[in-house]
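Ticket #4471: structure output looks truncated?

Reporter: J.K.
Steps to reproduce: submitted the chain below (475 residues) through the standard prediction queue, then opened the result file.
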Amino acid sequence: MKIQYKSLLGIFFILLSLFSFQASQPKTRKPNIVLVYFDDMGFGDIGRTGAIGYQTPNMDQMAKEGLFFSHFYAPQAVCSASRAGLLTGCYPNRVGFSGALDHTAKVGLNPEEETIAELLKKQGYSTAAYGKWHLGHLPEFLPTKNGFDEYFGLPYSNDMWPNHPVAKNYYPPLPLIENDKVIATNPDQSQFTTQFTEKTIGFIQKNKDKPFFVYLAHPMPHVPLFVSDKFKGKSEQGLFGDVLMELDWSIGQIRKTLVDLKLDENTIVIVTSDNGPWFNYGNHAGSAGGFREGKGTTWEGGQRVPCLMTWKGVIPAGVVCNNISSGLDILPTIAEVTGAPLPTKKIDGVSLWKLLQGDFTEKPRDTFLYYYRANNLEAVRHGKWKLVFPHSGRTYEGFTPGKDGLPGAVNENYNFMGGLFDLSKDPSERYNVQLDFPEVTKTLMKIADEAREDLGDDLQGKAGKNRRAIGKRAN
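Returned output as attached by the reporter:
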């Protein structure tokens, strides 16, 4: 039987049209998410923001290929609270968190709160957490009880061990945990950056054919500082610079893996920090990039941190975003991008998806609340204005920093008078212009009063109507 030439030609064009139609369709696979959270890395600690004495070429490359957020705030200026805010999209005080939990804590992340991992698990994602957890060390509060398929890391900060320079022998041996079992104590910290990086890479390789979410929470550059032989003595800034170079290497290894596996066009990489530098550790601390104060304060140096995001072909390359944004916003952004429903309970984050697409006319967030200590509302930002309320808090000023792992003195109860600051002209918060802008002050006062009704304020003796309980051990 002969097949007509015109028939063959018709079939050819039908197949060609079908192929072209399929090729033009958007990718249906949900994007992978890699979220890297450094500990105590200040705004000035990467090359993009002026690091001196060492280079961070991989993070600088991220800035060239993606977005750098210049007004990005950690949820709070201390470890546990910041991580609670990141993973739940809530101000930490909304979910009962403050401070930094240690080995005596009988509390942790409430199982009724929904984490990024839990949202993504419902969307078919494989999930993993590596590095520092710090949201409850008891088995019922570990990552595997909060949406993560696997976990390998530390339950709290790496200085919570018997060799703490101030509280020697207060802490028990530092445990290294895999899933929910302690597999070692006082492990070699010089291998942490390499170990947690290799675990992350292994997880990506294992899950390359399905969507994944990996949360890599490096324990450093929080003190005590350790570095592997690969980077020991490599920087001109000493051990701190060596550590940052190795952390930057970690970012490079992860991104190279994504390229090698041809996953870079379908993976969002986010790199940021939990709070600013711990200044009283001197040469073992980083830089706030000229902002005032550091870790443990609600001044800009305590909470404004670097944030880099890349997604090849989606996020515009080489752009600085000056819109206000926060670690609170990571959860709702990921939810919108992946199609995951938001948590059923109220959250405080907003989606940055429009910003990630380069539309900076959008202002998904124009207000940020600076809470600290148990529940003190110490400042409010709206647009370019920041109103700081009188409060007692930490200051590093006037004290000689420590050296080589030993801390210097700080005043934890300095009485700040507060004031109104124009962050567009005075990012170091030195010039109080409250008397010159009474209407601006009035606007920010109204925002603060609404926050006090919602979340409370210990400075004014207000409990707040919508705070939720931290998770507590049943017995």
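Triage note (M.O.): checked the attachment and the full token line is present. Residues 239-260 form the longest helix (22 residues).
Status: closed, working as intended.
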